[in-house]
TrEMBL record:
It comes from Puccinia striiformis. InterPro entries: CxC1 (IPR041320), KDZ (IPR040521). Residues 161-265 form the CxC1-like cysteine cluster associated with KDZ transposases domain. Residues 1-40, 924-959 are annotated as: Disordered. Pfam families: CxC1, KDZ. Residues 27-39 have a biased composition (Basic and acidic residues). This is CxC1-like cysteine cluster associated with KDZ transposases domain-containing protein. The lineage of its organism: Eukaryota, Fungi, Dikarya, Basidiomycota, Pucciniomycotina. Residues 924-950 have a biased composition (Acidic residues).
């Protein structure tokens, strides 16, 4: 019989176990301290040393796992670091050292063995956020169709939540479940414009909770389990406040909270209200956009018709040829302005972007931008265009990508490229991601723009970097005027939200810009007729000014022609053509002129040194004298090299320093530098000069601007002094009698500040051609300017007549389209209803065709009323402008005047009816009435409602 071992396997330690225990005693002690700290609740996460061990280092006291080996372990000799620290800190006895801080968790620790890798923890948290965000997006998409259907139905019932029934419970109209059906009760915070309350809300499982909350007049912040909801009138108020003022979410929610707490219940979870309000605001904006898309889909609008309705009818409306079309340069011309805005950038670390990027329709899709970049590469390869430096783009700050990389390295989206028509309506935008203002951005916008307009329509482009588009070989019907400054600048309608959008998510940033641009276009369309009338009046004012100048000139003798003839328009035009020719030739010699200017400036410095030496004005020390001799010698060598680059020798060029051409070159340089300062000073003063309701300028910014202007005072005074000297020297050489003319008197600082950038002083004509009439005769220069202004006035008048024609033609055709579509819906709604009619693809979640047709009819009726009010708003300006622009070259009749009369009567009757209803309601409230009769009328009203149709054809549809 075998003897059993008396060894207890749970307590017995072999010799190897004892050695291993002794070897890992240090690690075991640290693990014991960690466990004790976790039990006490004062554990501090260790600081992890992520530095890799040095290569080739040896540790004879480490085992295979990398832990330190303690061969001589004596627990009694070990000191407790925590106890030593507590003994030191005991001097401050009033401080509770054992209480954990709720904000600072990064306390140092002596442990070298982390429990979890922080990179793994961060990745796990990011993955969880992505999953939660995707679940939220999926739930929102599932509930959005029913929510939108309910929104349309409730908006029609409550007149956009402006009636007394705005907060009635319409949920029984959507829910067909019995009273004994299972219902869930949950708390929800309801926030209104004048109060707030936490209530218990009963939800039925047959429809999303957000639909049931909306049935009570509130929009939930979450589709499935909302914790807060906001009234529709509060969201509408915030929407208008956000458009017309600089409203940020946190101050608005805090103001609303304080205002409501004085008048209603106190909500204890108020810190989460701002996040819920943000979600509700974005949901409200989505519903507004879906409503507009529904109307456009019902009307079957083309891309051009969508631009006419949502952007600018004066540019994209149909043409009935009632305006002026005498000038081919502006006949049916469409003007597009392009520019970049780098204030609307986005920081990389701003907002957790868990959801995929959603590009609004007004933006160019990133895939379209990549296709344009590939197209440019193919064109460069096909036409063998060398990739050389673009001087224009390099000199432009926005177009220089290298500058952007250093300045905005913390941003992923560096700005916005925008486009607008000449009526300041936004057309398309392009998000600038990680680059500067490269040419692929405007080309992508142009490509998308040209796809929405007629192929044979001429298009003019205003772009400050338009010269860079010539290398792209893009568009045969594209007319580029690259030398004109753009009329478009995105800060005019987004400057108030530039800073908040930098720290929003990328989707919120693009969505906010799209929402703002659409609303701004809508407001521009309302003011379109008055805008056209205002521009016409401005053209007439300019006409009268230039007419006076031309009338005086044609009666003045012309000294530039033989005989006693007077100035004529033909002579002025010939002088303008000669000036353009010389200017084009002058552009080819700019480099030589700059080199000549540099040579003359350097030679003046050398001459001053030589004059000092001739007078015996030597430096005080021999070392300084040697430095001066060395500088003169080196500068002389540089001058000889510069003269050689100009194709002549140094002695010959030095002898021409006092010639007429040299003095003119120095004057050109002084005047160019002075003009650069004038542009800079004007740009700094512009915010102060143009401050109005739409241009916000605080005291601090105004002080900074005035300080910058004052700091430029000394450089400006030096530039003015140099310019006066150069002009005196040149005129003394050419014609001393011209020094007595008023325009050649010395310029002062006060005159410089009051001078506009279009002042005749900045005319460079006399630098090109010293003997031409357009360069010497001020009357010729003034006459050329007036002739060109009158040409622009004529073009402006023709454009205004064409745009007026397109606007009112679009208004009439759109009005007829709305009425004809409503008639089609009424025809399809007659029994028996065809379930496969032309509206089957609209609102596919709406299973009942009858309910769908009723809903579409109500939407189009509301849209028709808005369009009729728009036409009435235009009526006075259209009538005035129509009368003033009629001539022998225009038509005198238009369908507008046949349709506007009945529309005016219809709108006025509607306003009078609403006023009468208000008076009747006011009288009833004051005098009272028969309560029993009121109850009977209420019962009759309930009987009049199509109960079956509303339940079957309601917005929720079958569950």
């Amino acid at each position: 019989m075998v003897r059993l071992s008396k060894v207890n396997p749970f307590k017995h330690e072999t010799q190897n176990d004892k050695k291993r225990k002794a070897r890992h005693a240090g690690r075991y002690a640290e693990e014991r301290q960690t466990l004790d700290a976790l039990k006490r609740g004062n554990y501090r996460a260790p600081i992890i040393n992520l530095q890799p061990p040095e290569a080739g280092s040896e540790n004879n006291n480490s085992d295979a796992a990398g832990y330190e080996v303690h061969e001589d372990f004596h627990p009694e000799d070990q000191s407790n670091p925590e106890a030593d620290t507590l003994n030191v800190l005991s001097a401050w006895g009033s401080i509770p050292w054992d209480v954990m801080s709720s904000t600072n968790h990064n306390q140092p620790s002596q442990s070298r063995y982390p429990l979890l890798d922080p990179n793994i923890v961060a990745a796990a948290r990011q993955r969880d956020r992505d999953i939660d965000q995707q679940i939220l997006v999926n739930n929102r998409q599932k509930a959005m169709s029913k929510l939108f259907n309910s929104y349309l139905w409730l908006r029609e019932k409550t007149n956009h939540w402006t009636t007394e029934t705005s907060f009635h419970d319409f949920a029984p109209r959507f829910c067909r479940c019995s009273e004994t059906a299972r219902r869930t009760t949950a708390w929800i915070d309801l926030v209104d414009l004048t109060g707030q309350e936490r209530v218990k809300f009963q939800y039925c499982d047959c429809m999303p909770r957000c639909v049931q909350v909306l049935a009570s007049g509130f929009l939930a912040s979450s589709p499935l389990e909302p914790s807060a909801a906001f009234s529709m009138r509060l969201l509408a108020y915030h929407n208008y406040a956000w458009h017309h003022s600089n409203v940020r979410m946190k101050p608005f929610s805090e103001t609303q909270r304080v205002f409501n707490e004085e008048r209603s219940q106190f909500l204890w979870n108020r810190n989460m209200t701002r996040q819920c309000l943000t979600k509700a605001v974005w949901l409200y904006r989505d519903l507004l956009g879906m409503g507009l898309d529904l109307v456009q889909a019902t009307l079957r609008l083309t891309d051009t018709q969508k631009l006419a309705h949502g952007t600018c009818p004066a540019c994209f409306g149909p043409n009935s040829r009632t305006g002026l079309h005498r000038l081919a340069s502006v006949s049916d011309r469409l003007i597009l302005s392009l520019d970049g805005n780098f204030q609307l950038r986005h920081h990389k670390r701003a907002g957790r972007q868990s959801a995929p990027l959603v590009t609004p329709d007004i933006f160019v899709h990133p895939t379209e931008l990549e296709a344009v970049k590939e197209y440019i590469t193919q064109q460069e390869r096909l036409h063998k265009i060398a990739k050389k430096a673009d001087k224009c783009a390099d000199s432009h700050k926005a177009g220089n990508d290298v500058r952007n990389e250093t300045t905005w390295k913390a941003c992923d989206d560096t700005g916005i490229m925008g486009s607008c028509c000449r009526h300041d309506s936004v057309l398309f935008l392009a998000n600038i991601h990680g680059t500067g203002e490269n040419r692929a951005l405007p080309l992508a916008i142009l490509k998308k723009f040209l796809a929405h307009v007629e192929a044979d329509r001429p298009v003019g482009v205003l772009y400050d970097l338009g010269c860079s588009l010539d290398n792209a070989k893009f568009g045969q019907n594209l007319v580029t005027e690259s030398n004109l400054e753009p009329q478009f600048s995105t800060p005019t309608f987004t400057s108030g939200h530039a800073s908040p959008l930098r720290y929003a998510t990328r989707n919120n940033r693009l969505g906010a810009l799209s929402h703002r641009c659409k609303y701004r276009n809508q407001q521009s369309n309302i003011k379109l007729a008055s805008w056209l009338r205002k521009k016409f009046e401005q053209a007439l004012v300019r006409r009268d000014l230039e007419k006076t100048i031309i009338s005086d000139l044609v009666q003045t003798p012309n000294p530039n022609t033989p005989g006693r003839s007077h100035y004529t328009v033909a002579f002025l035009r010939s002088q303008w053509e000669d000036q353009v020719r010389v200017a084009l030739e002058k552009n080819d010699t700019d480099d030589q002129q700059k080199k000549m200017t540099e040579f003359l400036d350097n030679e003046e410095v050398l001459e001053s040194y030589r004059a000092r030496m001739a007078r015996g004005e030597w430096p005080s020390t021999l070392a300084k004298s040697n430095e001066m001799f060395q500088a003169i010698e080196e500068q002389g060598k540089a001058q000889r090299a510069l003269a050689a680059s100009l194709g002549t020798d140094y002695a010959t060029l030095r002898g021409q320093c006092k010639s007429e051409l040299s003095l003119l070159t120095l004057l050109w340089k002084a005047k160019s530098d002075l003009y650069t300062l004038a542009v800079t000073v004007r740009a700094e003063r512009e915010p102060v000069m143009t401050t109005d309701a739409g241009n916000r300028l605080g005291t601090r910014l105004k002080e900074r601007i005035m300080g910058a202007i004052n700091r430029r005072k000394n450089p400006v005074e030096r530039a003015i002094k140099l310019f006066n000297e150069r002009r005196r020297d040149y005129l003394q050489k050419v014609d001393a009698s011209r020094l007595l003319l008023p325009e050649n008197q010395d310029l002062t600082l006060a005159e410089f500040k009051a001078m506009d950038l279009t002042d005749p002083l900045w005319n460079d004509n006399h630098f090109y051609h010293a003997r031409a009439p357009w360069a010497l005769d001020p009357n010729v220069r003034k006459g050329i300017k007036s002739v060109l202004f009158l040409d622009r006035v004529e073009e402006e008048v023709e454009l205004i007549t064409q745009e007026l024609d397109r606007s009112i033609t679009w208004a009439c055709e759109y009005h007829r389209l709305l009425r004809s579509t409503i008639a089609k819906i009424d025809l399809e709604a007659q029994e028996p209803i065809n379930p496969n009619n032309e509206f089957i693809d609209i609102l596919p979640s709406f299973t009942s065709m009858k309910g769908k047709l009723q809903l579409l009819r109500s939407e189009l009726d509301r849209h028709l009323e808005e369009h009729q009010r728009l036409m009435v708003t235009w009526a006075i300006d259209v009538e005035t402008l129509w009368k003033k622009t009629r001539s022998q070259h225009t038509k005198s009749t238009h369908c507008w005047f046949d349709e506007i009369g009945p529309i005016k009567q219809l709108v006025s009757r509607g306003n009078i009816a609403s006023i009468d209803d208000a008076f009747e309601q006011l009288t009833f409230d004051e005098e009272g009435g028969d309560q029993e009769e009121d109850e009977d009328e209420g019962e009759e009203d309930d009987d009049d409602v199509e109960e079956i149709d509303d339940r079957v054809d309601g917005p929720g549809g079958p569950s």
